[in-house]
Design brief:
Layout lengths: L2 H12 L12 H10 L5 H14 L3 H15 L6 H18 L8 H4 L7 H12 L8 H10 L7 H11 L2 H17 L18 H12 L1
């Protein structure tokens, strides 16, 4: 078994049925939650959407709200003004071109304001069961630490992962890495001593050597 295969196997065994932590009630509200989550924690997004989706949950609801009122609803989230404008614009496109439904193709998703490659990958993976790999800050960090990729550009990292990760792990890979990065392999003070990958992790090994030399 390869080094990469073993890492994926351990993560899959430890994190059964890994899933997004964004709270949503429909495909449309999931898309909005993902757009809102850019440069914002899922915890903060969930606090906002819990209130928002109780009152406004359909394409028509959001469009009728308008940009300024939507900004007030989401003002505790970073970049809320831009996100509000994008959400109103993408909602109008969904109503006009897609019968108010979230499209299931990358091409159509990336036509929507505020939806880039990473957001499209998250939607395709979590809503439509496609083995796409979304590269966020957690995934970037873990790929460096685990030796999956030395690239720092998200697209190049995604291409590296597509090439080296066994097909059977691709469906869950993004959520596995995000959850492991969020709770164990943290950006600051990673919990290496409690990590199931500590004995086969390049970063963990370097930390151990550093401590021994002190």
């Amino acid at each position: 078994m390869s080094h990469i295969d073993e890492i994926c196997r351990r993560l899959s065994s430890a994190l059964k049925n890994p899933a997004t932590e964004l709270v949503y009630i429909s495909d449309y509200t999931f898309l909005l939650a993902v757009v809102l989550s850019a440069q914002t924690t899922d915890v903060q997004v969930n606090k906002v959407t819990e209130r928002l989706f109780k009152k406004y949950r359909t394409v028509d609801d959001i469009i009728s709200l308008g940009v300024e009122k939507l900004q007030m609803e989401i003002r505790s989230i970073g970049l809320y003004k831009t996100k509000a404008r994008n959400i109103i614009a993408l909602s109008k496109i969904l109503r006009e071109k897609f019968d108010s439904r979230v499209p299931s193709s990358r091409k159509d998703l990336e036509l929507l304001p505020g939806v880039g490659r990473k957001t499209a990958n998250v939607v395709l993976n979590n809503l439509f069961g496609m083995p796409t790999i979304a590269v966020d800050t957690h995934v970037l960090r873990l790929c460096q630490r685990l030796g999956f990729s030395k690239n720092k550009d998200p697209l190049k990292v995604e291409q590296d992962l597509e090439r080296i990760i066994p097909q059977k792990y691709k469906m869950d890979l993004s959520n596995l890495l995000v959850l492991h990065g969020r709770y164990t392999c943290k950006a600051q003070k990673p919990l290496c001593s409690a990590c199931i990958l500590s004995d086969i992790c390049e970063y963990g090994a370097s930390i151990s050597v550093s401590k021994m030399s002190q």
